[in-house]
């Protein structure tokens, strides 16, 4: 701070109220800094009021910066009066403390982001049950929670949070339209052109959902993953009940149609 004296106009005088407004600190804070010797004011010889010059303003700005960095008032006093080699040591110590604080803050922010994603994902999750009777929807959700567990459900919520409400609603509407389209061709053989066109749409819809919710984790809807999707129609009670809600017998017809599609396209 010694160089500041050479470049600042010492003749500009501020009273305590003016300095308070310029620096954005309270008058009480300035009185305290004066009392502990951190920023000592000169006294007007005529009225005894505190007075400050531009050097004091610059010094106050330095104090405020150090306070923002987490320095104690004692540390700031030492820094402002330190020789260069002492100052480097003090600042390096503070650098280490700040880096630790940044790491802790990043960890807290990551945790907060995860929590927010779960909450947003839960809201999006509800969209897919909007056309289902309330008691039936709640039963399916309870079954899914019990089977998957909290950790896997949280992952699913976080993935759903990657999409906006509008995007989730659009996907839900696509599913509803597809269901009605598939029901309309259930009287046809699984290898018919009409059924296979609907199965192809189902494949594309499933792949799109994985891409949007899994991001870089998703490596494509290959035969192994497709078989897993098919197996849900045989082994997962919630999946079976959801499909059967729309039309009795739909799960078996879809499974056989997907199996034909798999044999022809993989």
Automatic annotation (TrEMBL):
Residues 13-82 form the HTH merR-type domain. Keywords: Activator, DNA-binding, Transcription, Transcription regulation. Transmembrane segments: none annotated. The keyword Cell inner membrane does not apply. One of its GO terms (molecular function) is DNA binding. This is MerR family transcriptional regulator. It comes from Parashewanella curva.
């Amino acid at each position: 701070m010694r160089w500041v004296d050479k470049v600042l106009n010492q003749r500009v005088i501020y009273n305590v109220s003016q300095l308070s407004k310029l620096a954005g600190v309270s008058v009480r804070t300035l009185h305290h800094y004066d009392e502990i010797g951190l920023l000592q004011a000169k006294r007007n010889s005529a009225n005894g009021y505190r007075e400050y010059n531009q050097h004091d303003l610059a010094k106050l700005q330095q104090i405020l910066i150090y306070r923002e960095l987490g320095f104690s008032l004692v540390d700031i006093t030492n820094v402002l009066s330190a020789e260069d080699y002492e100052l480097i040591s003090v600042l390096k110590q503070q650098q280490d403390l700040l880096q630790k604080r940044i790491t802790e803050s990043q960890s807290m922010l990551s945790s907060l982001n995860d929590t927010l994603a779960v909450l947003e994902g839960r809201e999006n999750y509800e969209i897919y049950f909007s056309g289902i009777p309330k008691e039936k929807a709640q039963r399916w959700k309870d079954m899914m929670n019990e089977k998957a567990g909290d950790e896997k459900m949280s992952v699913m919520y976080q993935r759903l949070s990657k999409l906006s409400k509008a995007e989730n609603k659009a996907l839900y509407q696509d599913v509803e339209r597809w269901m009605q389209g598939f029901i309309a061709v259930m009287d046809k053989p699984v290898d018919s052109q009409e059924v296979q066109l609907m199965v192809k749409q189902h494949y594309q819809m499933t792949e799109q959902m994985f891409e949007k919710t899994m991001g870089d984790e998703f490596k494509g809807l290959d035969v192994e993953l497709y078989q897993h999707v098919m197996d849900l129609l045989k082994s997962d009670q919630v999946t079976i009940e959801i499909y059967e809600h729309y039309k009795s017998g739909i799960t078996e017809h879809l499974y056989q149609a997907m199996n034909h599609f798999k044999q022809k396209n993989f």
